[in-house]
Amino acid sequence: MRLDSHVHFWKYNPVRDNWIDDTMPMLKRDFLPTDIEKEIKANGIAGCIAVQAAQDEAETLFLAKLAQDNAFIKGVVGWTDLTASNAVERLQYFSEWRIVKGFRHILQSEPEAFFTNSYFVNSLNCLAKFDFTFDLLITHQQLPIANALLQKLSGDVKIIVDHGAKPAIRLHEIVDWKREIKKLALHPQLYCKLSGLLTEGDWEKQPYKDVKPYLDVIVEAFGTKRICFGSDWPVMLLASKYATWMSMVEDYFSGFSAAERSDVLGGNAIRFYKI
Prior knowledge:
- The structure is a single chain.
- With 275 residues, the chain is of the alpha/beta class.
- The chain has helices at 37-42, 57-69, 87-94, 118-126, 143-150, 175-184, 208-222, 242-252, 258-273; strands spanning 3-7, 47-51, 73-78, 100-105, 133-136, 158-161, 190-194, 227-229.
- It has one domain: TIM Barrel (Alpha-Beta Barrel), CATH 3.20.20.140.
- The chain has an eight-stranded parallel sheet.
- Helix 5 links the parallel strand 5 and strand 6.
- The longest helix has 16 residues, at 258-273.
- It starts with a strand and ends with a helix.
């Protein structure tokens, strides 16, 4: 089964969704399952993982309800406050929700001190107890901090890097990111999503040649058993149509074996999130 490992849904709220600034007017509206279901099916995708975009538990409930009503949503990456003193209790609570596969915090907006918060580190180390995963949303500048965080975590904690840690593709900067992402990939429990990369490039040009060197690094660092196709829809629409990104990924992996393509386009995500 082909699976898109990274899709967002929201009912647009200008206060809550203030990260959608005036450079992104097309995102200032609702994006719901009916807006993407035909698109993913037309591209041979059987299902998706719905990932949080807001930092409250209401978001987890919202996504879980969408999954209940739309069978093609195969799992939810929600949010709960992993710095709270009762975080483990909340993990216990959500462990009863089979559709909730893991959690994410928007670390790209947090200061360095957040990564060493004792409650946060303890909560991450408790995820495996409840069979939860963690989506690591960071920028390329935060890779050294993230690596330090992983040194504190048990090897049982399953983590996936969103958007390849957002390399500076628009600026054609690759050297530092390459060095640090390869260090991070040394942690065997770590996976990486091929999502959101076009959005880190030039939104107008969408050049495959600019993205390809970064795909090369990710494949070299993680191998084909620990990378997952993802779109980052609808944010990706700032730079590309869904079919464009799908065809780029298919073209890149066309020379790989059928088993490797199957892993990247769905098998790895299915195993990671236990779909």
